[in-house]
Amino acid sequence: MNFLGLIISLVTAFFAPNASKESNVPQSPPNIILMIGDGMGHTHLSSALYYGKEEPNYVRFPFVGLSRTSSSSHKITDSAAGATAFSCGVKTYNGSIGMTADTLPHKTILDQLAEDGWKTGVIATSSVTHATPASFYAHVPMRKQEFEIAEQYFTASVDFMAGGGKRFFFHRLDERNLYPEFDRQGIIVDTTQLTDYDWQAGKRYAYLLAKDGMTPKYKGRGDFLPKATSLALDYFDKTAGDKPFFMMVEGSQIDWGGHANNGDYLVQEMLDFDQAIGVALDYAAQDGNTIVIVTADHECGGFSLVSEEVEVPFQGKQRDYDSLRFSFGSGGHSAAMVPVMAYGPGANLFSGIYQNNSIYAKMMTLAGY
Ligand SMILES: [Zn+2]
């Protein structure tokens, strides 16, 4: 060992006791809560520091990494390929839902864990058939096939589902109404509100609360996302028994604020997503065997927070570094790496710089595969 090697080992040994507290892969698989801020780049995340009323919840994450987001077909991914990387562990083409680059259906982490008796949940502020949530339970070659995705929900194993998308189940172009399907399978479907049921272990629950995507936060969505997260956790607590659960929660519309180059829309969605993160972190802190992973599929909008230029008497234009304004470089996604943050048993696995589909592999390792 050379001198530098020796120093590195000494330093590593010195810090190891601190790191080891959370560094071991847990003996028994933890509950896994994967939270996806769609389109959430570093500046989106940072915006919560400056526009929230209090310190954001995400500052509580002890482990942080960076995810490389390119898909198999493009340098810049879309949400379908981005989510399929997380759900299936494969890099695939833009538009693919739960399918490989060769358009073969690939078992998702949710499919696999459900088979092994885990309870599962999917929550989104888009329609539940939109690219990100769909990639966890459906398999279609193109993300636009939302009517097929709705049909596949009935053969998938999503125990708790909440979001929009009524039109893909009840007001379909083919005029089929899938309501009897819910009935036939004994799924409690609620199209009015986030009702707090007396949960039954053998039942599945689906909340479909908007025709398409949920109302944007800045137009009055209220506390849907944190509340649905909290309800799902209560459902798992009462029904999962001694099995863990896997849940995906998406702040879907951070992305839509980015596409619209609408800073207020984006920031309100970001703050709302952070509220849901707070719910998950509180649960994990109390439970002790739950990991919370927060990441994004890609950045959207080329968003930045820049300084205002002000006219100073006799000095001309000057930058005021204490006054922020939103700036957008694009109406689409960008190629930037995105943050990954983790809390709980095995959270240290998420430190570092890696490909987006490694997130699947890390979760599967934690799940005991
Ligand atoms: Zn997008």
Topology:
Layout (H helix, E strand, L loop, with lengths): L2 H18 L10 E7 L4 H10 L11 E6 L10 H10 L20 H7 L3 E9 L3 H4 L11 H8 L6 E5 L1 H4 L9 H6 L2 E4 L13 E5 L15 H16 L5 E7 L2 H6 L3 H25 L2 E6 L3 E2 L2 E10 L3 E13 L4 E2 L3 E6 L8 E4 L2 H9 L3
Parallel strand pairs: 1-7, 1-8, 2-14, 3-4, 3-7, 4-6, 5-6
Antiparallel strand pairs: 2-13, 8-13, 9-12, 10-11
Helix pairs in contact: 2-11, 3-12, 9-11
The site of zinc ion has 6 residues, from helix 10.
Structural notes for this entry:
With 369 residues, this protein is of the alpha/beta class. The protein contains twelve helices and 14 strands. The longest helix is centred in the C-terminal third of the chain and has 25 residues, at 263-287. The radius of gyration is 21 Å and the shape is globular. Mean pLDDT is 94; it is low at 13-22. Zinc ion binds next to α10.
Which tags fit this structure?
single chain; alpha/beta; ten-stranded mixed beta sheet; two-stranded antiparallel sheet; 14 strands
Low-pLDDT segments, ≥5 res: 13-22
Ions, cofactors and other bound molecules: zinc ion
Mean pLDDT: 94
**What would you report as the Rg, rounded to the nearest angstrom?**
21 Å
Q: Numbering strands along the chain, what is their spatial order in the largest sheet? A: 5-6-4-3-7-1-8-13-2-14
Total count of helical runs of at least 4 residues: 12
Subunit organisation of the chains: single chain
Largest sheet: 10 strands, mixed
> SSE order, as H and E?
HEHEHHEHHEHHEEHEHHEEEEEEEH
N- to C-terminal separation?
35 Å
Specify the structural class: alpha/beta
